[in-house]
Amino acid sequence: MASIGNMHEDETGGRRTTKSVYEAILGGIRAGRWLPGGKLPSVREMGELMNVHRLTALKAYRQLADEGLVEAKYKSGYYVKTHEARAREPSLETEWDYKARSLYVNRSRLSDIHRQQVDYQMSEALIDPNLLPNAYLSNYVKQVFDLYPRVLSTYSTVLGDAELREKLGGFFLAKHGISVHPDELLITTGSQQAIDLVSRALAKPGDKALIERPTYSPAIDAFQQQGIALLPVTITPEGYDLDEVERLMKTERPRLFYMNPTYQNPTGYTVPAMQRKRLVELAERYQCLLVEDDVYHDIYFGGPPPPPLFYYDTEGYVLYIRSFSKYVAPGLRISVLAARPALMEAIAPVKALSDNGTPLLNQKIFQHYFFSKRLQEHVAKLRTALELRKTAMESSLSDTGWQWASPNGGLNLWVRLPDHLSVEELLRRALSRSLAFVPGSICDPLGGMNDWIRLSYSYLNETNIAEGIRRLVDIAEEIRSEH
Ligand SMILES: Cc1ncc(COP(=O)(O)O)c(C=O)c1O
């Protein structure tokens, strides 16, 4: 959906319906355009903003009020409800439903930010489509239809196409020296689905899980939706405090530890090989599963990263998620989850319930493209292009006094702002000027880290990165000068 300020028509070009006005207001609230406790535009103003009759705006406000998301104040207008006010209200829903729904309302801010169409998109860790060889990829689409004329009339198996799993087994052996049987591999629709499946199959409400602080925020949501209590493991410039990890494993007995140890999102941090070995030993000792989310493994600058934790695992405590979604073809959404048979037995039925198998066509196109020489050439070029963009962002930030640790791979900079600057205010103004980034609090399982932001350098070219950062710094300066 386009940003509210500049969109007056829905996607079909027609006038907006109540539903789309409702969604646009909700999107604005979640993205921080209107803050909890703040006043919303009057019914007339909202009507003008959306180019609808004021009655349509009124109906949308009423629906939001019925759902407890906004409140009408007598003779004053509509206000965004605070989280506290919402939590105080009696509800007919069960406590569990309420938790799940309020969680969605609080947390889905990330996708709301991503949904805003802005000129300077630094919020989404997404690779610029201009950096992917689209024309070449379409050749593989044609090839697949020639090779498998029935591909569109066939289901995949739940685990995924046997030929692809076989080939990926060979890939793990050749690339990492990891021996994994094709039946220990499950093709998923992005690593996002793999995380969701793990959260549903391997833990139950009330279980505890360790999670990095900060982390990839949809993982926080996925585990919390299942009623899993999250225990944060802080990432410092030296990495995890492994004694603390051991203490938590020993005293709290977490069921699993969700981690993104290679070019971590958002910090860019990579856990060194020695720590990887020790983590696997701890997992075995305390019977805590390690969910290793390895989406950025191939996006390195300089040398490649250490082997995955999965490589060190002999007892089956590591579940390894390797996504090819971002840098091969995001439109295909192909990722693989590797797990030893006892765990796979629990996960596969959940995948069956979820979608009965990732679309076969996507798997076949991926297979033919991924194992081609062209892909290897492309990845090498892509690394160089991304590193140039990272450098462009870092040099644009160099005079600001803002702080970050330069990552050796991945797509993001994790930046600390000066203490006095309100990130929420920065975001609100940035969005209204067509610029987006991720506020750090979204990445924090404890909802803090208010001085941090995540800036992705993968989507904009160098010129736009320089301009985007210049504008962001100007807004920060404007806020500073007002206080
Ligand atoms: C750490 C991490 N895990 C998982 C994902 C989801 O990726 P996919 O496109 O494979 O679903 C992302 C995407 O940004 C990510 O950063």
TrEMBL record:
Classification via CDD domains: AAT_like, WHTH_GntR
Q: Which Pfam families match?
A: Aminotran_1_2, GntR
| InterPro entries reported for this sequence | Aminotransferase_I/II_large (IPR004839), HTH_trans_reg/aminotransferase (IPR051446), PyrdxlP-dep_Trfase (IPR015424), PyrdxlP-dep_Trfase_major (IPR015421), PyrdxlP-dep_Trfase_small (IPR015422), Tscrpt_reg_HTH_GntR (IPR000524), WH-like_DNA-bd_sf (IPR036388), WH_DNA-bd_sf (IPR036390)
SMART domains given in the database record: HTH_GNTR
GO MF term list = DNA binding; DNA-binding transcription factor activity; pyridoxal phosphate binding; transaminase activity
Q: Which family does it belong to?
A: In the C-terminal section; belongs to the class-I pyridoxal-phosphate-dependent aminotransferase family.
Q: Does the keyword Nucleus apply?
A: no
In which domain of life is the source organism classified? Bacteria
Q: Which cofactor does it need?
A: pyridoxal 5'-phosphate
Which positions, given as ranges, span the membrane?
Answer: none
Q: What is this protein called?
A: DNA-binding transcriptional MocR family regulator
Where do the HTH gntR-type domain residues begin and end? 15-83
* UniProt keywords, alphabetically: Aminotransferase, DNA-binding, Pyridoxal phosphate, Transcription, Transcription regulation, Transferase
Organism of provenance: Paenibacillus methanolicus
